[in-house]
Amino acid sequence: MLRAFIARSPRSAAGPALRYFWAATEVPEVVFDAPGDDPLDQMRHDCIRHKLCDEAGFRKKDVHWTFSLAVGSTDPKKPPSLRTIGFQRVSTLGIDFVIKRGSDSSQSLAAGQAASIVALHGRYLAGENSEQWRAEGYCEELPLEEIIDVVPHSTLTNIVACKRIHDEEGKTEGRVSIEGASHLTDLIQQARLQLDIQSLSSDVLSESVVAFRFLPDRVERMSGGPDTVTWDRWEWQREKGPWDEPRWLLPH
């Protein structure tokens, strides 16, 4: 019969380490180490390991790095808005991203509506580990110039083009249907040319694109893979100020 043992190592700067191993030679040792005291810094380290961001937490060029964002509507009769967002930076300050200014989601975020995210990193394959991040909190607007240098040009030009069509239609809210692809393509090409020759002013960009920083007050991290005994699940919480010591949770 396989027998499981738990050993606790002394607390280090990275937090207490919990290790599982099995009293059988045919089963590989599985080690669960407590993550760091700051979940956002832990996420940054994970993403560096997955080659998604640089040491400062900025998104690497041409990397597909996304999370799902849910935010409540300012209208209590509407369901929360759920969308896929591109990471631009993760740091101990928060998670930075951009969306179209004036959209329902941007208005809800600007109004301080509660928000939550889910992010998946890594691959669930033999010999590898993947992480699932869940977090709850709110967002605050961020000066666009803080992260605009790492935002893909395709993201900027597509948002600018869509905002121009939105304004042409005189829409103040809701979605706009496409009557023909040619006009949208022309506006995207126009915005791309303006961006390339630096004639797309910061004012025009700010009228179309808004940057936010997600500030979580509760975070969960689950990690594991086909070779692990079970998911390793940790939770951090804070009121205002530093994070409480992470808690080790049941995986389900």
Characterization of this structure:
Helices cover 23% and strands 33% of the residues. The protein is of the alpha+beta class. α3 crosses α4 (181-196). It is globular, with a radius of gyration of 22 Å.
Question: Keyphrases for this structure?
Answer:
252 residues; alpha+beta; nine-stranded antiparallel beta sheet; three-stranded antiparallel beta sheet; 5 helices; disordered N terminus
Question: Secondary-structure map with pairings?
Answer:
Elements: E1 4-8, E2 17-22, E3 30-33, H1 39-49, E4 66-71, E5 81-86, E6 89-91, E7 94-100, H2 104-110, E8 115-122, E9 130-142, H3 153-168, H4 181-196, H5 202-208, E10 209-224, E11 232-237, E12 247-249
Antiparallel strand pairs: 1-2, 2-3, 4-5, 4-8, 6-7, 7-10, 8-9, 9-10, 10-11, 11-12
Helix pairs in contact: 3-4
